[in-house]
Write a structure and sequence with these properties.
Number of helices: 8
Strand content: 5-15%
Oligomer: single chain
Radius of gyration: 20 Å
Length: 293
């Protein structure tokens, strides 16, 4: 366990006092059920809302074309998520419940931004609705839209314009209310440092080849996260090049994101490297803001 509600509220208040704010990890594309119907896990009776109301979602809350969990709702507006039932975001009652919960996290708990999980699983317009009903587009919100890169067998293609275009389309689709994790930059960068193929780090127009080359103020750059690295290791950055990776994202456009594991558990040398780079990045951004003013 990570603590009580009271401790979380206290933590977020302390963060706010220091000029920062908490961003909550929001998983609303899918939700594991706790009861079975006809041999399928598709009933949600395990909880009560923060108002004390019983959560009693059934098959109606699951997309009607979910290939596994037998929902009776509307067709999915995005990609299917195999391991758990996909929630029907086209259902107004379900959306109101989600917005009510997000408002509770914002107003009662103290979160001021959202990290939205698996956003390719529901239409981008719903992202705008959820953000607009809560923290607003002026706060930091970011979506996990894991784009598929283009490969030729085991070789990464030089041009990844299709992948970054999908991210641009998604950002436009959410009315620019939410930034996106720059998966193209991660994929290109780790191939470049792994094979010393640094020619990959600029596109045909001489710009960075990921989302940061097209829309830097909407691109959140990162080296690894809980899916790609950590205990899951789905797509890890080369472990002996992590410092070089941070040197790149901290000195290039975009909104750099530091992975907890790297900063706190990978040893003092990497810790100091990231801390130094973060200070340089912060100073550079302050200088840029002063020049603009």
């Amino acid at each position: 366990k990570y603590g009580s509600k009271e401790e979380l509220v206290e933590l977020l208040a302390a963060i706010n006092e220091r000029g920062m704010y908490g961003v909550a990890d929001i998983v609303i594309n899918h939700r594991c059920a706790d009861e079975m119907t006809d041999g399928v896990w598709n009933k949600f009776r395990d909880d009560v809302s923060h108002d004390g109301l019983k959560i009693d979602w059934g098959k109606w809350a699951i997309t009607g074309n979910d290939p596994v969990f037998g929902g009776s709702g509307n067709p999915d507006t995005g990609d299917d998520y195999g391991p758990a039932p996909d929630l029907d975001h086209a259902n107004p009652e379900l959306r109101e419940a989600l917005k009510h919960w997000l408002q509770y996290l914002q107003n009662d708990i103290g979160f001021k931004g959202w990290r939205l999980d698996f956003v390719r699983g529901y239409a981008a317009g719903f992202v705008d609705e959820y953000v607009s009903a809560t923290v607003g587009k002026d706060m930091f919100n970011v979506g996990e839209y894991w784009t598929d890169l283009a490969w030729n067998g085991s070789d990464l293609d030089y041009c990844q314009d299709a992948a970054r275009q999908r991210l641009c389309d998604w950002i436009n689709g959410n009315n620019k209310s939410c930034t996106a994790f720059d998966f193209p930059t991660k994929g290109i960068l780790q191939e470049a440092v792994k094979h010393q193929q640094y020619w990959r780090l600029k596109d045909k127009d001489g710009k960075p080849p990921g989302l940061i080359g097209w829309w830097p103020n909407r691109a959140v750059t990162f080296i690894d996260n809980h899916d790609t690295g950590s205990t899951q290791q789905h797509w890890p950055f080369p472990s002996d090049r992590v410092g070089a990776g941070y040197a790149y994202i901290m000195t290039h456009p975009g909104i750099p994101c530091v992975f907890w594991d790297h900063y706190f558990t990978w040893g003092e040398e990497l810790h100091k490297t990231i801390k130094t780079l973060a200070a340089v990045s912060s100073q550079r951004r302050q200088q840029q803001q002063q020049q603009q003013e």
